[in-house]
Amino acid sequence: MSRTATLLIRRGEPGEAPRWARYAVPFEPGQSVLDGLRRIRTQEDPSLAFRFSCINANACKECMILIDGKTVYACTARLEEREMRLEPLGNKALIRDLVTEIAPPDERLANAAPPAPDR
Amino acid sequence: MLIIGAGAAGMSAAIAAHEAGAAVLLADRSLIGRGGATVMAQMTVAVALGDEVPDAPDAHFADTMAAGRDLCDASLAAMLCAEAPEAIRQMDRWHAGWARHEDGRLRQAQAPGHDRPRCVYVDFLNTGPAVSRTLRAQVQRRPAIARIGELCVTDLVMRDGEALGAVGFSLADGRPVSIAAKAVIVATGGLTRLYRRNSGSANMGGDGYALALRAGATLVDMEFVQFFPIGHLAPRLIGMDPIMWDPFRYKLGGRLLNAERREFIDDYGVKEDGRYVATRDLATYAILKEVEAGRGSPAGGAYLSFEHLGAAALREAFGPVIDRLAKNGIDLTRQPVEVAPIAHYHMGGIRVGSTLETGARNLFAAGEAIGGANGANRLSGNAISEALVFGRRAGLAAAARAKESKAASWHDASAHASLDLVSATGAKPAINLAALITKLQHVMESHVGPFRSGPGLETALDEIAALTDALGAVPPGAPGRFDPERLDWFDARNMLLIAEAVTRAALARRESRGAHQRDDFPATDEAWRVNQALSLDGSELVLAAVPPRAALAGAQ
Fold it and tell me: Which is the catalytic residue, given B69, B136, B147, B280?
């Protein structure tokens, strides 16, 4: 019998009532939660938004989310053979689904000052 | 001026251009200084410092040229080797944290392809993060450098062969963005994402190559994709970079074994004997030939063993990493790991002259985004060095250009089509675009990997054409907040173009050399001692053979 991990994910944009989506992904021992999220996008629902860059090295530090209420990196959290509850970081402004505003304020388009002129 | 990409090359360019007095905007599709390949570097940075043993840039140059299998652009290779020492000393003054001997000299490790110990590093597996952090701190200390993350550049804006700026969109809210600039530097890194198994960040799908091609610039050496021979394969490890075994081999040697638990590299003409000497192209070839012959490890690679070394030696060399391995259930004193070649670096890229300017005026490029310095195979350790050296050079040249011109000249009509595309509203995609990208990665891995053949490459071209048709001409949905499907569409647009570029160049090169191995043309052919330049004519990719560029007089 195939083994599954269930990811219960809080989705939506600011101003919307959050909706909870439940995805079953095949469970293979040793995988990360990020592996599960990436699999959801290619196999089931490509509209799911989450942030990552380096995939597995825990170098970019972009994939931070809440799993069962705890702040973790999705790339180092193990996928488990049970239901896991995934939410965007609570202390950052929500952008969409699991994506929050983690860029430093002065590196966002909305706030960026134009470059000082040539000297 | 605008710099696209905030890895080591882009950040070095930003610092140099700012110091030269130019107004700089540094943009990245990820967060500034977090994405890209730099942050993933595990250990080595090649530089003829002479701290470990006497050394000279000439010797580094000779090793770079030899590794490149007679195809290096000697003027770029010479610049890289001559200027790397000052770049590394500068990083040291900025507190990069290079590993040192007790007397203060920098430690330099022996890497494959080098004639002596030449590679500086930061312990433990921390070179890339340290380089990124150091440069990021220096950029931040110069507040006049404007930094914008999460900005996906989709096209350069060109008029009469000159770059006027760029168009893209903001990932956070989908808003179209246009940027007028007197000069533009492309520092977007390589194309590792074209392959299913790779060592790069998810944002490295060849963006800069596609931007440059569509802008009328020329690419070179696109057939030469470097596979890193000992990427981690099994057992599953999380929180570790797949190229992590490289430093282990530098420091401890280790044994590369086949299914019979026999060191097999000897059979391919290199005597390793527990040391680490085989170059990347050769080791990749040897491992895959063993797998093909039925002597691979269970997961389809080779074994890498440190079992003969003992716990004390392992802990001394890699202390905290040993604990992270233990958390993954791996005890190197009792078991080997399995490794296999994975896509790692691109030797090819945008063709530039000695000022790092492309064929298009006001358009510069630096780092892995350029081609030429490494020929058909890159020497271990040259990637960070070239990012620092070429980044600085491009920053200085682009700054000089920007200061020459009075004002950025923008031309609405030249940006029109690109702005229309990022503003477009398309139908909900009929296909899963994330799956389309995965399909492309499988095609490239199967047919345009380390071993190629005419029929396989033809199959790849057919598959790429079919995927390009499936992608369509309009991005799905409307501009909005962090829309992964819309981003997939723009990514796939670039990836498919560059996949075709790699495949066409590989099909044309009817010989084997360095990282390009043809099953149907297994020998190196002296007549093919030429680079292939590639440009876009309408929607057609056009190849031209050009002789390798010689060193500039007095450059070395």
Answer: B280
Q: Given a cut of 90, is residue B155 above it in pLDDT?
A: yes
Element (H, E) at A39: helix A33-43
**Into which CATH architecture does domain B231-341 fall?**
Alpha-Beta Complex (3.90)
Nearest to B239 among A76, A107, A115 (CB): A76
Which of B275, B278, B253, B252 has the alpha carbon at shortest distance from B265? Answer: B278
pLDDT(B140) > 80? yes
pLDDT classification of B556: cutoffs 50, 70, 90: very low
Distance of alpha carbon A87 from alpha carbon A66, whole angstroms: 5
With an 8 Å Cβ cutoff, is A92 touching chain B? no
Cross-chain residue pair B238–A60, CB shorter than 8 Å: no
| Closest CA in chain B for residue A52 | B202
What is the domain partition of chain B in residue ranges? 231-341, 424-525
Which string of b and e fits B419-444 if b means at least 16 CB within 10 Å? bebbebebeebeebbbebbbbbbebb
Q: How confident is the model at residue A1 (pLDDT cuts 50, 70, 90)?
A: low
Query: Residues 515..534 of B with a Cβ closer than 8 Å to A: which?
Result: none
Query: What ranges make up the beta strands (E) of B124-205?
Result: 146-148, 151-159, 162-170, 176-180, 184-186
* pLDDT band, very low/low/confident/very high, at B157 (cuts 50, 70, 90): very high
CATH number of B424-525: 1.20.58.100
ipTM here: 0.96
Q: Measured between CA atoms, how close is B143 to chain A, in angstroms?
A: 9
State how far the Cα of B62 lies from the Cα of B81, in Å rounded to an integer.
9
Whether pLDDT at B552 is above 80: no
> pTM of the predicted model, to two decimals?
0.97
CATH fold match for the domains B231-341 and B424-525: no
Domain ranges of chain A: 4-99
CATH class of the domain whose range is A4-99: alpha beta
What does the CA dihedral B529, B535, B538, B539 come to, rounded to 10 degrees?
Answer: 70
Across the interface, do B148 and A57 touch by the CB < 8 Å criterion? no
Q: Which pLDDT tens digit goes with each residue over B350-383? A: 999 999 999 999 999 999 999 999 999 999 999 9
pLDDT digits (tens, 9 = 90+) for A5-64: 999 999 999 999 999 999 999 998 889 999 999 999 999 999 999 999 988 888 888 999
CB nearest to A114's CB, from B146, B173, B488: B146
